[in-house]
Amino acid sequence: MFSFPARCGAGKTEMLFPGIAEALRSGMRVCLATPRADVVQELLPRIRNAFKNVNIQGLYGGSEEKTGNAQLIISTTHQLLRFKAAFHFLIIDEVDAFPFHNDPSLPYAAKRSLHSTQSTTIYLTATPRRNQQLRLWMKQLPHVFVPSRFHGHPLPVPILETCTSLKKDIQNNRVPYSLLNWMRKRISPHRQLLIFVPTIELVEQLYKNSLVQLPQQKLLTSKDRIMCVHASDPERKEKVQLFRDKKIDILITTTILERGVTFPSVDVAIIDASHRVFDEAALVQIAGRAGRSPDDPKGEVVFFHNGKTNSMVHAIDAIKSMNKRGGFI
Question: CB of 133 within 8 A of CB of 21?
Fold first, then answer.
């Protein structure tokens, strides 16, 4: 068992390619398991492009591929329940994320899926949980730490913006003034914008308000350039792809896009960052959506809040600490 802590955007997936290639050359079966179907769908083309002559299958709820007999499997962690003594090399991506970290059946399934005599497990994470940090500190878990992003630039440090009128603005069908004011002053307004909010209800309400106000404020060129998405959205996959293809400029979302997705040039705003949904790990992961491209490594990240929380403070401290360890401060 091996741990691979690396900051958001470090290029963890690509760093695994040499090890995966060696395992495949040796005739081993390999599985990369990740928490969400969205991430499987994003990883599949990247890995198929890297391993063109290998039989690769993607397994998740609703996937067209069902058999699970390929040499290289990319799957959600729930799909591990299907396997027994199947894999020589198992990679658990985002090991700290829901549902793996709080569903005891999934670590059990991961262990059961391993080949009985010869196997290796690697855990990947940019935000290890406290118990995982303790094991690393006590040297109970062998690990490699990657403090820098692949392009050699620091992770953008979030700024805090007080938004005391948030609930009142939403109730009165207004986009929060603090958000509008920041949007007017963005350093690079050509970047796409990801807006995270804590609940589906707030996603839909903010979207409706934005359709009216953003064009009025000349912050949106057309109403078809903004969309919203959440876990219950039947068009979730298509909307995320439209954003990836830069056919929309603003995407309002819940935490479903907090990790595992890459957009090359975005600014990030979190509305009601003091909400309990946004714990330290979520805030760090969301901040990690910005600045992922070597062509644009300096995306802005803003936490709009109506009261500073420990999670916000710890998230910013963690990002600064990572930047310091990477030699940027």
Answer: no
Amino acid letter for position 68: G
Q: Which residue from 91, 122, 161 is spatially nearest to 306, judged by alpha carbons? A: 161
User: Distances in Å between the alpha carbon of 238 and those of 101, 242, 246, 248?
Assistant: 28, 6, 12, 12
Number of C-alpha atoms within 13 angstroms, CB side, residue 321? 10
Name the amino acid, one letter, at 144: V
Q: Which whole number is the average pLDDT over 241-260?
A: 93
pLDDT value of position 2: 43
- Which H or E run includes 305? strand 301-305
Coil, strand or helix: which one is 74?
A: strand
pTM for the whole structure: 0.81
- Cα–Cα distance measured from residue 35 to residue 51, given in angstroms and rounded to the nearest whole number: 22
How far apart, in whole angstroms, are the C-alpha atoms of residue 108 and residue 89?
Answer: 16
Total length of the chain = 329
* Tokens encoding 86: 């199947």
Q: Which residue has the tokens 């700290």?
A: 96
Burial of 304: CB neighbours in 10 Å, binned 0-12, 13-18, 19+: buried
Determine the Cα–Cα distance for residues 147 and 135; give it in Å rounded to an integer.
18
| In contact, 89 and 28? CB cutoff 8 Å | yes
Residue 52 half-sphere exposure toward CB, CA atoms < 13 A: 1
Count CA atoms closer than 13 A to 240's CA, side-chain side: 22
Q: Residues with Cβ < 8 Å from 123, sequence gap 6 or more?
A: 1, 2, 3, 4, 92, 95, 132
The count of C-alpha atoms lying within 13 angstroms of the C-alpha of 173, restricted to the half-sphere facing its C-beta, is: 4
The 3-state DSSP class for residue 184 equals helix
In sequence order, the β-bridge partners of residue 305 are: 162
Cα four-point dihedral sign 62, 63, 65, 66: negative
Average pLDDT over residues 305-329: 89
Tens-place pLDDT, residues 173-201: 899 999 999 999 999 999 999 999 999 99
